Amino acid sequence: MIVYYNTIKYTGLLSNFLYMLLAIGVMSAAGLGLQIVEPNTPEHTYFVESLVLGATICMIVIFGCYGMVCDLLSVNLIFTFFILIVLAVEYLQVHNYQPHTRYSDAWQQLELSLAWQNLDKQPELMQHLEQQQHCCGYNNAEDYKNLHLPLPSSCYQQSPQSDGSTKVKLISHGCLATLSNTKRGILHRDKLFMWCIVGLEVFILVQTISLSLLLYKLRQRDRQARQQVPPGVRREPRANHVGSRAQLLDNV
């Protein structure tokens, strides 16, 4: 049982260390985000909440590691309760996940629409978007043909070959579809990151419960061992207060 206890203990310390690193990463990203966004905006509130959540996780992890190192059953039970609360909050966030406004591509679509409308006056705006997003046209490359315009160089992608030559390939997909795919990719990574946090919390919760059960059984075994009397040793009966008082009166 001692071997199992030590294995779960050290594995739990490692898991909590990774959990703290994850929380520090969230706090660092939120700190960088606060320097970019404007105050009193939904993005600013989101990053402030991330800072508070990361700091709370760090304090909980430090508290839990203290209980593991010192083998304190009460601290482990309180840590289990804290992990349950954080896990419930994270599960609600994943279950009721809504894309944050920072992922809104409305301004990007507006910029794309303006660049396409001003294609005859300022073609460099559309070409800049095409080079940045690796796309061609508003919907696809056929948009230029419909307007009887030549395809710009930004619609071609050059890839070097093994023999030293360069292969030129036409980009067929449009910029509108590229923006939508980029947004879906960001949302997918964000949700996957949240599920990783929930999975790590479930793993830490199982470890903490197992550690508390083993610690309780070890305490019970030690208590029973102290109560057992070795063979050949006679336990002296406890003297009551009546007998001790009578002996004191006799001495007087």
From TrEMBL:
<feature type="transmembrane region" description="Helical">
    <location>
        <begin position="12"/>
        <end position="34"/>
    </location>
</feature>
<feature type="transmembrane region" description="Helical">
    <location>
        <begin position="46"/>
        <end position="66"/>
    </location>
</feature>
<protein>
    <submittedName>
        <fullName>Protein late bloomer</fullName>
    </submittedName>
</protein>
<dbReference type="Pfam" id="PF00335">
    <property type="entry name" value="Tetraspanin"/>
</dbReference>
<keyword id="KW-0472">Membrane</keyword>
<keyword id="KW-1133">Transmembrane helix</keyword>
<dbReference type="InterPro" id="IPR018499">
    <property type="entry name" value="Tetraspanin/Peripherin"/>
</dbReference>
<dbReference type="GO" id="GO:0016020">
    <property type="term" value="C:membrane"/>
</dbReference>
<feature type="transmembrane region" description="Helical">
    <location>
        <begin position="192"/>
        <end position="216"/>
    </location>
</feature>
<dbReference type="InterPro" id="IPR008952">
    <property type="entry name" value="Tetraspanin_EC2_sf"/>
</dbReference>
<feature type="transmembrane region" description="Helical">
    <location>
        <begin position="73"/>
        <end position="94"/>
    </location>
</feature>
<keyword id="KW-0812">Transmembrane</keyword>
